[in-house]
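Input structure tokens:
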């Protein structure tokens, strides 16, 4: 029988199956293989125990969630003002793990004085202007969740809990403290949980506001440029095939920035992330 892990605490996993929800432990041989079971994992199981972990299509370390289709990035137009670097980090993490980024521009009663819609409106991602508090535009978010597994992300204060209350009030009633946990934005949580809402599945992940790149298993900066979708069309024009797009001669990406074909803020985020990651040493993973 195949099931999906919705929550795991203290070595006991809540698994959704065709028979309903089961509370199961995992065979020791799974854990011996180094497989840390996570919310979102598909597993083979018997009536009494999880037998095997089915290979994942992607996984995040923080929050510990697997098999994600979309990262719903909630951005406030004001209060707090958008931090382009944090937005770019979340997009890069999604791209790195093969997750589709979707931008949710909340608090649309404010004027977009930061220009966030201009910067990200030119990227190949769907974006929506909404007011979660007024429940304006929230149907678009429901449609994005329908049929998919989604992670709701964004820094503290952007309106994640308000959005959850607007699109899935039964979730807040069911869990009681979801809204408060998201508002506090604990960085150290290791518990993630899936909920069936809006015709799909959403992860309650209060730890996502911790934006250290290594926490998301994004370590190799040689792969970072691929996470910036607008850079890709210029790669073949760079003088060197291994161009880092930092100080390299004949870099077509840098030329595109100078010519206004790539937004300067996006390139500055790339440089900052590149320096933050530093040189990747594979032996440190062992």
């Amino acid at each position: 029988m195949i099931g999906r892990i919705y929550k795991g605490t203290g070595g006991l996993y809540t698994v959704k199956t065709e028979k309903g929800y089961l509370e199961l432990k995992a065979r020791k041989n799974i854990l011996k293989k180094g497989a840390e079971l996570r919310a979102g994992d598909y597993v083979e199981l018997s009536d009494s125990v999880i037998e095997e972990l089915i290979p994942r299509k992607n996984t995040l370390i923080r929050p510990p969630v697997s098999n994600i289709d979309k990262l719903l990035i909630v951005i406030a137009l004001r209060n707090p003002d958008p931090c382009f670097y944090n937005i770019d980090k979340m997009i890069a993490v999604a791209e790195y793990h093969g997750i589709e980024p979707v931008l949710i521009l909340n608090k649309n009663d404010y004027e977009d004085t930061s220009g966030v819609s201009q910067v990200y409106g030119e990227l190949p991602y769907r974006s929506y202007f909404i007011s979660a508090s007024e429940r304006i535009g929230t149907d678009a978010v429901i449609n994005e969740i329908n049929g998919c597994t989604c992670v709701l992300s964004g820094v503290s204060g952007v309106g994640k809990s308000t959005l959850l209350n607007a699109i899935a009030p039964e979730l807040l009633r069911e869990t009681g403290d979801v809204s408060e946990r998201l508002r506090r934005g604990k960085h150290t949580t290791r518990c993630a949980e899936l909920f069936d809402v809006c015709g799909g599945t959403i992860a309650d992940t209060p730890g996502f506001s911790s934006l250290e790149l290594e926490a998301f298993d994004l370590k190799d900066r040689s792969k970072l440029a691929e996470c910036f979708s607008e850079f890709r069309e210029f790669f073949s024009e760079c003088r060197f095939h291994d161009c880092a797009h930092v100080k390299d001669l004949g870099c077509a990406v840098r030329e595109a920035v100078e010519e206004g074909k790539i937004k300067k803020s996006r390139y500055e985020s790339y440089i900052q992330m590149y320096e933050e990651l530093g040189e990747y040493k594979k032996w440190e993973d062992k």
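The longest helix spans residues 264-277. The two ends are 34 Å apart (CA to CA).
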